[in-house]
Specification:
It is a single chain. The chain has helices spanning about 25-35, 45-50, 65-70, 90-95, 100-105, 110-115, 140-160, 185-195, 200-210, 230-235, 250-265, 280-285, 290-305, 310-315, 360-380, 410-425; strands at about 15-20, 80-85, 120, 165-170, 215-220, 240, 265-275, 320-325, 335-345, 350-360, 385. By secondary structure, the chain is an alpha/beta fold. The strands form 2 sheets. It has a 7-stranded parallel sheet with strand order 3-2-1-4-5-6-11, sandwiched between helices. The structure holds nicotinamide-adenine-dinucleotide (NAD). Nicotinamide-adenine-dinucleotide binds near residues 84, 201, 219 and 246. Nicotinamide-adenine-dinucleotide (NAD) binds near residues 86, 120, 284 and 361.
């Protein structure tokens, strides 16, 4: 039975997309949106721009575009803002990282050169491989959070924005586990005032966003909003949050392949994943404390898809290793190799080799756009706190405490689309399909 259509505020006026970290991903995203607006390219990979959603029975032939089915901000109504510890404009960043180049970049030079970052909140203890002097100074972490809020308020007024969202595209920070300071809103705010060392820069941005009622999506594997304090603050302020770590490249392949192997009950005894990449992200990930953050996020995927507890004969002894090597000649053109040792009927062994030559930021850019538009939609729909339906976009989806994340990309997509159907009072699709045969 169809549900009641939820009351959703319309996407009127302009939406500001705020991006801490104007590097390869952020610039590819912004240049791309400007190019699409000018009709110079297609937003391939973006569900909000190109995806359709089936409604009702298969015989009804109702498959509208998602952006026509639910109210999303138009690309024409988007303004960009961002922070970085280097002062380069979006155009200059794009020019340096060579993801989008030549004629296409020059055709959006004027618009993208006008996107200049604000000074960053940065702490070299969390990213040892980077040093830049385009950073804010303040009397405490709370003071820095207030400076970020001032940037946002000024941006909102200058651009005459109706709403804002924040998508973290900054570097991966050093590994951090939740501690007492992250436990409650009070302990966190005390920590901000007293400069607690376990409050990472990404948390200061997230705190500033949530305090301003701005949804926050976490594109890196950083802990950030995955703490009781910031979850509680998001609920209290009616702010949707989600994370962690954009699902692109090798992990995207893994979450496509692993559910397939599992569905046919093929055993897996080893999955060795190797990467070479030469962008700044690769440089940052060379530091062991930053790689540890990424490794945790990448390793979590298989365990939850394959469920070794339920299928010990097939997956209990799985050896899963992930290696990332910084190799400058490759720039953003990452190459990954996966060797998968599987076994079938009567334990006969087989191997699968995957060699993916991808462009990391080309895969990440549409995710930034979708997360921004869907986070804004979530807020207008009255959703707050953790948005599990956005798991589709993440390597290490944030879920309620005690709940394991759903990593199977096909289940994630069904969850996302059913959430959209639910908001519009449409029947959820269960794929039961018995009615066609009655
Ligand atoms: N490219 C992908 O496919 C992909 C996939 C998953 C996750 N990610 C994550 O997305 C993030 C961005 O990736 P990228 O390839 O654009 O990296 P990048 O190194 O090109 O860009 C990151 C930018 O963040 C800036 N930065 C670092 N700390 C900051 C701070 N505290 N405040 C403001 N700016 C800060 C850096 O100066 C840099 O310009 C990384 O954390 C990466 O791990 C990327």
């Amino acid at each position: 039975m169809a549900q009641q259509k939820a009351a959703i505020a319309p996407a009127k006026g302009k939406l500001g997309i705020l991006v801490p970290g104007m590097g390869a991903v952020a610039s590819t995203f912004m240049v791309g949106v400007e190019a699409v607006r000018k009709g110079l390219g297609a937003p391939i990979g973006s569900l909000t721009q190109m995806g359709r959603i089936r409604l009702g029975k298969r015989t009804e032939n109702r498959n509208p575009l998602i952006k026509e089915f639910v109210s999303l901000a138009n690309l024409e109504d988007i303004e960009f803002g961002g922070w970085d510890l280097f002062p380069d404009s979006c155009y200059e960043v794009a020019k340096k990282n060579h993801v989008i180049f030549g004629d296409l970049l020059e055709k959006v030079k004027e618009e993208t050169h006008a996107i200049k970052p604000w000074k960053a909140v940065f702490d070299p203890n969390y990213v040892t491989r980077l040093s830049g002097d385009y950073v804010k100074t303040g009397s405490s972490k709370m003071d820095l959070a207030k400076q970020l809020m001032d940037d946002m308020a000024q941006f909102k007024a200058e651009k005459n924005l109706d709403r804002m969202v924040m998508v973290w595209c900054g570097s991966t920070e050093a590994y951090l586990q939740p501690g007492a300071v992250h436990e409650t809103i009070e302990s966190f705010e005390k920590g901000l005032k007293e400069n607690h060392p376990d409050i990472a820069p990404s948390m200061i941005y997230a705190y500033a966003a949530i305090k301003m009622g701005v949804p926050y999506a976490n594109g890196a594997p950083n802990l950030t909003v995955d703490t009781p304090a910031l979850i509680a603050l998001a609920k209290e302020n009616g702010v949707p949050i989600s994370g962690k770590d954009f699902k692109t490249g090798q992990t995207l392949m893994k979450t496509i392949l692993a559910p397939g192997l599992k569905s046919r009950l093929l055993g897996t005894e080893g999955w060795f994943s190797m990467n070479i990449l030469g962008n700044r992200d690769g440089e940052v990930l060379e530091a062991p404390e930053n790689f540890k953050t990424k490794e945790e996020s990448k390793l979590s995927v298989l365990e939850h898809i394959l469920q070794p507890d339920l299928y010990p004969e097939l997956y209990k002894d799985l050896v899963h290793k992930v290696r990332i090597n910084y190799y400058p000649p490759r720039g953003d053109n990452k190459e990954s190799w996966d060797n998968i040792d599987i076994f079938g009927w009567l334990n006969y062994k087989m191997q699968i080799k995957v060699n993916f030559l991808c462009k990391d930021s080309i895969l990440a850019a549409p995710i930034v756009l979708d997360l921004a538009l869907f986070s804004d939609f979530a807020q207008r729909s009255g959703f707050s706190g953790i948005q599990e339906w956005l798991s589709f976009y993440y390597k290490s989806p944030q879920t309620a405490p005690g709940l394991y994340p759903e990593h199977d990309i096909f289940i994630q997509l069904m969850k996302l689309k059913n959430t959209l159907r639910d908001t519009q009072g449409e029947d959820l699709i269960t794929h039961l399909g018995r009615e066609y045969y009655d």
